[in-house]
């Protein structure tokens, strides 16, 4: 009985190691990447970045509260660039922003051919 149990444990360890090795070859683990603008926005919304911002001549405007933030009251904490696979006009950049009054949100802007 002891020999059978040791053999079973050794077989189980061998199968786990072998399956893990082959699993990584045939089913590679996907890295958390920002693959699309929509998935990136959803990811940041889940992290609490729920405000939407827009740039105007006075500064950065919150679309929710209409408050205008001058440049010294904002901080860009992250950004991601997206390029269209079939249309170069589908180029956008996502800015992840925090304000001095604890506002957290995003700004999406075009770049390249269609940028302002």
Describe, in plain words, how this protein is organized in 3D.
This protein has 116 residues and is α+β, with helices and mostly antiparallel strands. It folds into two domains: 1-30; 32-114, no CATH class. Helices cover 30% and strands 31% of the residues. The protein contains two helices and six strands, in the order ααββββββ. The protein has helices at residues 2-26, 37-46, and strands at 51-56, 59-62, 68-69, 74-82, 92-99, 104-110. A six-stranded mixed β-sheet has the order 3-2-1-6-5-4, covered by helices on one side. The longest helix has 25 residues, at 2-26. The termini are far apart. The mean pLDDT is 77.
Helix content range: 25-40%
**Low-confidence spans:** none
Q: Please provide the count of β strands.
A: 6
Q: Helix tally? A: 2
Strand content of the residues, in percent? 25-35%
Number of domains: 2
End-to-end span in angstroms? Answer: 77 Å
Structural class of the secondary elements?
Answer: alpha+beta
Mean pLDDT, nearest integer?
A: 77
How do the helices and strands line up, and which of them pair or pack?
Layout: H1 2-26, H2 37-46, E1 51-56, E2 59-62, E3 68-69, E4 74-82, E5 92-99, E6 104-110
Parallel strand pairs: 1-6
Antiparallel strand pairs: 1-2, 2-3, 4-5, 5-6
In short:
The protein is of the alpha+beta class.
Task: Note the main attributes of this structure.
single chain; 116 residues; alpha+beta; 6 strands; elongated
């Amino acid at each position: 009985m002891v020999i059978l149990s040791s053999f079973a444990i050794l077989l189980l360890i061998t199968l786990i190691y072998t399956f893990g090795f082959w699993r990584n070859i045939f089913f590679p683990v996907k890295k958390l990447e920002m693959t699309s603008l929509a998935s990136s926005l959803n990811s940041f919304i889940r992290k609490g970045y729920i405000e939407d911002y827009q740039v105007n001549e006075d500064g950065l405007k919150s679309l929710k509260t209409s408050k205008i933030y001058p440049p010294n009251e904002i901080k860009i904490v992250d950004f991601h660039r997206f390029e269209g696979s079939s249309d170069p006009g589908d180029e956008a950049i996502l800015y992840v922003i925090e304000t001095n009054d604890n506002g957290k949100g995003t700004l999406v802007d075009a770049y390249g051919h269609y940028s302002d």
